[in-house]
Amino acid sequence: MAKNITFELSTVNLGPHESLNTKIHISTLEMGIYANNGTGKTFLSRAFRLLNKEELDNNDSNKLLTIGKNDGSFKFKITNSTEPSIIRELEFSIKRDKTPNISKDTTDYIFRVFNDDYIKENLEGLKYKPSGEIEGYILGKEKIDLTKEKDELKTNSNELKTKEEELKLKVAKAIKDLDDLSIRKNTGDYQNITFNNLFNPEFNVVELESFNDLISKHNQLKALPDNLQDLRNVSYLKKTETLDNIISFLDEKFSRSSIADSFKTKIKNKQGFVETGISLLKEKTNECPFCEQNLEENALKLIDQYLEYLSETEAIQIKKANDLLLQLNVEKKENNEILKSFKNLEIEYLKNQKYIPSLASINLKELEDLTKLESSYKIIDDALEKKKEDISISLLDDSIKKAIKNLQLWIQDQNEIILQNSAIIKSFNDKKNNISTEKLDLNKRLCRARFNELKKIESEKIEEINNYNSKIKTLSEEILKKEQNEKISKKQKVVETFTQLLTKFFGSKYSFDDKTFCIKFKNHLLESNASDVLSNGEKSIVAFCYFIAESHRSINKEEDYSKLFFIIDDPISSQDFHFVYATSQIIRTLDKLFNISRLRLIILTHNLEFMSIIIRNKVIDQKFILENNKLETLGNELIMPYEEHLRDIYEISQGTKNPSHTTPNSLRHVLETINRFIAPDIDLNTFCERIDNFTENEFLYSLMHDGSHGIIRLQKPYTDQMIKSACNVVSDYVLKDFSGQIKIITS
User: Fold this and answer.
1) Which residues contact 495 (CB under 8 A, 6 or more apart)?
2) Which one of 174, 249, 684, 699 is separated from 159 by 20 to 30 angstroms, measured CA to CA?
3) What span, in angstroms and rounded, lies between the C-alpha atoms of 553 and 556?
4) Lowest pLDDT segment from 23-27, 63-67, 639-643, 646-650
5) If you compute the radius of gyration of the chain from its CA atoms, what whole number of angstroms results?
6) CB 286 within 8 A of CB 406
7) Packed helices 577-588 and 608-616: angle between N→C axes, nearest 10 degrees
8) 563-597 pLDDT tens trace
9) Residue 235, phi then psi, degrees to nearest 5
10) How many Cβ atoms are within 10 Å of 340's Cβ, its own excluded?
11) How much of the chain is in helix, strand and coil states, percent to nearest 5?
């Protein structure tokens, strides 16, 4: 092919290029330039990228200048012998701390530059959620009159803008109301009060109380006394054996005394008195404990009768009945005291409950009064009194059992209520003593209530805005439909191309949502966390896809596509082997993607294998190496021989070629190359263990090591069949995971 194009490039003090002068003759502007790290390829891409920037500043010059130099220059010139009258030139000068001066640009090219600076400015800083602010159209050839529709669209858009501004003021007022209450701005419910959430059907908050009611609680919470003491719950009701003892006592039959009934009747009525007197008499013998006179013989005889009676079973059981009556009455009084204590506790709780908003509707559970048990107590008392009259009979009947059961159940139920109240009282004390948590909870409720109030009050305006948006959408769709033959939205073209490229790279894993203008992972919108979900390699691919798609922004009319000139600096950073090939194929088809007949392209890379791939796949026609401030032709002998090694292995595995002394080296070369691409962090042996059937093949490991190192062999250790089986393993691995490479060598 005739080399009609003259490519000239000269720089002074541009990064490491203190004096770069290149003049080469080429057939096409589809160039690949290999450069080792540190040789200045990125500075060349930055120089071209100056033309993409809307505003230049001092930093642009400082980033380009050679360290220690204060001024520099850049000149780029293209001529074509078939178009001798057309000279395309680009010149600019740079001075430290000065804005670059672009003195000449007659190229008529639209430079599109991809490098790390592009990624940082357009995607990395936005956490890989591209900016959706893309305006303008790409003009076609046909023209139609859309004046009426556009005027209507403009009117509706202006009305919508007015309504939105009015509503945004209301949102601002709602936020100010919360600010006046000193609610922290980093509270999630505070941040949810946004204009967009008013229109989000999936965003709903639940708060039953009104904003004003919650403000009252907010004020009450602020009024909480500093020295408010903890509340103390009442004691649990005692579970004694008294009732069980009464059951046993009433049920048992005792022997009656043999003493005359008249005497027993006389004593029974004053047995307690007699018992007390007898106990006192023991301390003062022969002296009455009451009148202090000496006891005569008759008195002493009477005392002996008392003692005889008191030692009898009947007297003992009557005493027991009296003791049970007394104990039952004591426990009843104790229970009443606990009920009184609860009333005082309840009064104290109700008095201070207002200070804790979250407990405003939570009251202590009432303890049941003893009044309803009076009949049960009377039944038990009467039974004990009756038992005293005749201890020889059993008095335990259903009515007494029921009465005792009533008392037992009452104690059990009240203790359960006391237990439930304990949780409420503990909550009160905890919230009182940790008021910050209570304030935070109330503040969240205030935010939710204010949002609901705003949404309710402004419901009519929200509906109007929805209607305007609906009208605008309908009009826009009608206009867009009619404009299909006249012009196409730049934003639409960016979205279409970006979506298409994502599908080529990722299939259904990642897609793009044109409404939110963000990437979707398996139908989940990555609105704020795309940079966390995407791997480093995927970020590189997404950035490159968006770079290509965004080229439509630079186009104002269809004819402009023919002016595109791509400068691509290392697009394969962090990519694995699959994506490297996919990237090269995307670049190769840029002419078809943009429907242009002549592709202008400069690919800069420090990756020799990638350089080999784009040469073998005819992505570029011209190949050069940049070193020592020179741009020279890159010879084929410098390209990695990966393809030829793979071809040998594949042909041996297919039986169309016999193994040779170079086959072990080919096996090792192919595996080492893939290892460096997809898993550079692990050694070759560990990497090979991941390959299907590698460890099962007893010859492959030693063959590719021993057979590719120079040592003297006295006998042939491997047969052709052994070597072929090793080639089969490697060939099958490449065919399974990187089938495109096999297609290239067999095409």
Assistant:
1) 512, 514, 549
2) 174
3) 8
4) 639-643
5) 49
6) no
7) 50
8) 999 999 988 876 666 678 778 888 988 999 998 98
9) -70, 155
10) 11
11) 55, 15, 30
Q: Give tens-digit pLDDT for 258-273.
A: 454 555 565 556 656 6
**57 closest CA partner among 105, 95, 109:** 95
- Dist. CA 107–CA 644, nearest whole Å: 41
Q: Which two tokens stand for residue 40?
A: 């200045």
Q: What is the 3-state secondary structure (H, E, C) of 504-534?
A: HHHCCCEEEECCCCEEEECCEECCCCHHHHC
Block residue for tokens 């990695």? 640
DSSP annotation of 625? E
**Does 481 have pLDDT greater than 70?**
yes
Are 92 and 44 in contact by the 8 Å Cβ rule? The answer is no
- pLDDT confidence band for 673 (50 / 70 / 90): confident
Q: What are 710's two structure tokens? A: 């120079």
What band does 7 get if pLDDT is binned at 50, 70 and 90?
very high
Neighbours of 708 (CB within 10 A): 17
DSSP state of 196: G
State the DSSP H helix or E strand holding residue 559, giving kind and residue range, or none if neither: none
Least confident of 113-122, 261-270, 273-282: 261-270
- Residue 147's identity, in one-letter code, is T
Q: What are phi and psi of 189, to 5 degrees?
A: -65, -30
What does the block give as tokens for 430?
């905890």
Q: What is the value of pTM for the model shown?
A: 0.48
Answer yes or no: is pLDDT of 703 > 90.
Answer: no
Number of Cβ within 10 Å of residue 39's Cβ equals 21
List the beta bridge partners of residue 7: 24, 78
Lookup result for tokens 């930093």: 59
Question: H-helix or E-strand containing 90?
Answer: strand 87-95
CA-wise closest residue to 357 among 422, 433, 443 = 443
Q: Check whether 509 has a pLDDT greater than 80.
A: yes
- With the C-alpha atoms ordered 389, 393, 397, 402, is the resulting torsion angle positive or negative? positive
Tell me: pLDDT of 308 over 50: no
Q: Between 727 and 559, where is the model more confident?
A: 727
Q: How far is CA 322 from the centre of its chain?
A: 73
